[in-house]
Sequence to fold (273 residues):
Amino acid sequence: MPTPASNSPFPPTCRILIVDDEPTARRGVRMLLERQCGVEVVGEAGDGDTAIKMIKDLRPSIVFLDIQMPGCSGFEVMRAFPREDRPVVVFATAYDAHAVEAFEFNAVDYLLKPFDDERFFTALETAKHVWASRSTAGINAKVDAVIARLEETDAPPVEAARFDDRIPVKSSGEIYFLRPAEIDWIEAEGDYMKFHVGGQTHLMRETMSRLEARLDPRHFVRIHRSTIVNLDQVRKLSPAFVGEYTVVLRDGTKLKLSRGYQDRLKTMLSGLT
Fold:
């Protein structure tokens, strides 16, 4: 990975790659970075496989790397490179207690979603310092320890997790409290989530990742980067194009099932039969 120039009178430019399956999250990180001098965003990736290719091709100094992504996870992205070829990585995660505990004593740095500007810039400065000092040997050892520890506790037992039993949403000036069981499906619409409930729709300002973490994964599953569906409302999977499927709900609604989410949905549905 690129190293700071030791004989230049000018501060080196730090090359940054943003990796997150949420377009809104990537856009937010880019906007924060554009406020900084001495950094250059060299690209964005929406999945782990693309991230691996871009790291190889672009050789960024720092990668802001989401952990939970369809297909190839953030952990697997890092494992694709030997220690000496890894960029400095700042992990991002929507999970809190178990991840925070692990990162606290093994971190390059981490961002717990949702994070504020101050926390982001602290992480950026930490990563820039590590990159500038090139103390990557010790740091990469810590990254390996982080990955191992987080994978041991990456998904807390569902029985022990606490999920929302009421979701407040605004509609026409009123606040509705939706029970998760009432929700048919949810889609991203700009910076909002649109809830489809018995033929009605409600909007809530939220990100897809944060909302997904609030819903019980035994009943709600993501079928597309912008779609979450209530498993109880799924009637069938219909073949679409070669190797692709359409999710058909009980009310006849047809939703696209992305390839990256097929295995997870099929597994969840088989567990209900």
